[in-house]
Amino acid sequence: HITSKGDAINSLKAAEAPVAAAAAEEDDDIDLFGSDDEDVDEEAEKLKAQRLAEYKAKKEAKGPGPAAKSMITFEVKPWGEETDLDELEQMIKGIEMDGLVWAQKGQRIPVAFGIKKIQINATVEDAKVSTDDLSDLMMEFEDHVQSVDIAAFMKL
Question: Which of 10, 51, 68, 107 sits at a 20 to 30 Å CA gap from 148?
Answer without folding.
Answer: 68
